[in-house]
Amino acid sequence: MDAGTFALLAATMFVAAGLQGSIGFGAGLVAAPVIALVEPDLLPALVVMLACVLTLLVAIRDRAHLDVRGAGWALAGRVPGSVLGTWLVVAVSTTALSWIVAVAVLVGIGSAFLGWRPARTPVSLAVAGALSGVMGTATSVGGAPMAIIWQGLPPARIRATMSAFFLVGSLMSVGLLTLAGLVTSAVVEAFLLLSPVVLAGFFASRWLNRFLDADRLRLVGLLAAAGGAVVLAVRLILG
Fold first, then answer.
1. Which region among 7-16, 102-111, 208-217 has the lowest average model confidence (pLDDT)?
2. Tens of pLDDT along 138-186?
3. If you compute the radius of gyration of the chain from its CA atoms, what whole number of angstroms results?
4. How far is C-alpha 5 from the geometric centre of its chain's CA atoms?
5. Tell me, what DSSP letter sits at residue 119?
6. Measured between alpha carbons, how far is 204 from 22 in angstroms, rounded to an integer?
């Protein structure tokens, strides 16, 4: 990885970690399109591994607000979803996976802006967890289904519950991706280099939460992610 690529990925992960540390999701939405653009072979393993670090930090910070029952039902769906997502990574080409990233990001953003609010029942939580497992393991963008199902809850509860869910789910995904041979030496090297940046983004989110409205920060993050997905799609179309 050259210096320019590292600088771009570091800046991206700092913003992604700050966003997720503030609103409970969004790191994959911001980071995956950029990584797919410059270092597609690092997807999805790199973002999933960095998510383990970030979600652990947020879950510890906001643990008093955790919805254990809701997270449990969502994780029940995450297991089969993660298995299916791992199969997709092995079965499809890098180009196809990049398209999946771009489309998944845009669909997730569109759903968030439409404001659909399904009822939170055991079935709907499990279905959302399964969809998140597929998207998160295959593309590292698994936040949208959970953001939709948990929208409207107090910010601290959203952050805590989503982080606990994503921590367990991400650990499962890392294990499956490792078994599939997708956690390469290049991925491990990038993970070690970028982990301090994720830590910095997390601590920055604590400072930003004092001054910035979460809804405004969420809007900025979604727009940034949309821009990254559009750029990626244009590059794929132009070949």
1. 208-217
2. 888 888 788 888 877 888 898 899 999 999 999 999 999 999 999 999 9
3. 16
4. 20
5. -
6. 9
The closest alpha carbon to 158, from 32, 15, 21, 14, belongs to 21
pTM of the model: 0.84
**CB atoms near residue 83 (< 10 Å):** 15
Q: CA dist 48 to 29, 31, 143, 169, Å?
A: 12, 11, 12, 9
DSSP string, 47-80: HHHHHHHHHHHHHHHTGGG--HHHHHHHHHHHHH
Which tokens go with 164? 């606990």
79 in Cβ contact with 176 (< 8 Å): no
Which residue is listed with tokens 């280099």? Answer: 193
For the chain, give the longest Cα–Cα distance: 49
Q: Checking phi first, is residue 119 left (phi over 0); if not, alpha (psi -120 to 50) or beta? A: beta
160-175 burial, b at 16+ Cβ within 10 Å, e below that, comes to: bbbbbbbbbbbbbbbe
Instruction: Tell me how far apart the alpha carbons of residues 224 and 58 are, in angstroms, rounded to a whole number.
Output: 22
**Other Cβ atoms closer than 10 A to 84:** 13
